[in-house]
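Thread title: Can someone regenerate the structure for this chain?

I was given the following input by a collaborator and told the matching structure tokens would be attached. They weren't. Posting the sequence so someone can regenerate them.
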Amino acid sequence: MVLLQDLTLSELNQYLTENYGVKPFVGKQIYQWLTKSVDFDGMTNVPKALREQLKQNCVAVSCKIIQTLTSALDGTQKFLFELHDGNVIEGVLMKYKYGNTLCVSSQVGCRMGCKFCASTLGGLVRNLSAGEILGQVLAVNALGNGKERYVTNIVLMGSGEPLDNFDNVVKFLQLVSDVDGINVSERNISLSTCGVVPKIRALADMGFSLNLTLSLHNADNDERKQIMPISNAYSVEEAVSACRYYFQKTGRRVIIEYTLIDKQNDSYAHALKLASLLSDMSVHVNVIALNPVKETGLKGTSESNLKKFIGNLEKLGVSATRRRTMGQDIEGACGQLRRRYLEGGNGN
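Best answer:
Regenerated them for you:
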């Protein structure tokens, strides 16, 4: 089956012309429907005979919202998206004064094995295609009034490691920022990685201007290996060096994510090592209170210690703030997204 949301307008026109003899103006009509997450039956200005033909070989809407959970604490919404093959992924919409930010997934599951993250439980099932990543944005964007874009910002921080699905993520970035599509500025897109060093450098060389976030969580290699197996392949020094390279190539300041785990990465010595690692670098540290994932057995640091850690970083000359926790009561906060709905039930 051909996922039409995988295609740019020119690719769609070529496919339709070669296989169905369709004129470009009809292709543009179909493309406009696709950007509104409308399935074939809703494409009212497209000939019915063509729509029936396309149904036999193509998928119009790559993922559909099958359930929405809304946080009673802050209004954050978690969406369950069903893919065309029956797999289910999660995404989260966070509402701020400046607009709506959608956290999207890039893989079904994850193989990175970070100890504090629910997404990696059960491993990697498969990569998402570019259109399946885009489809999450289009499905949620369709919830708006249609007069202005409902999803204003995008973060690739859901299930999966985006740079482990590099080619599809790059194609997604091209699709979502295309002027023929919904035209989201790259500066309104953030990508979070645990530190796949060669792909960070490759992304920098491709000329994108999106925001890069490094999930670091410990500046000590031996200690980081205990919670983030990626450090067995790439050291923290290599990861930070790649981020410096990204800044040099793009001019975009890098964000460091640092989740505080009780007695593992929350001491003054850890703050000192982190400050030393990030010296002479244009960077900001988001300090995160560990969100509970029952299977991990990990405990977050105390509230007083979290504030002390931020204060220590600031005294050491590092820009740092606490990242606001949103959607925790619906398990939609950082580190809580997973693929459990594949396995039946709601995980409770």
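The mean pLDDT is 91.
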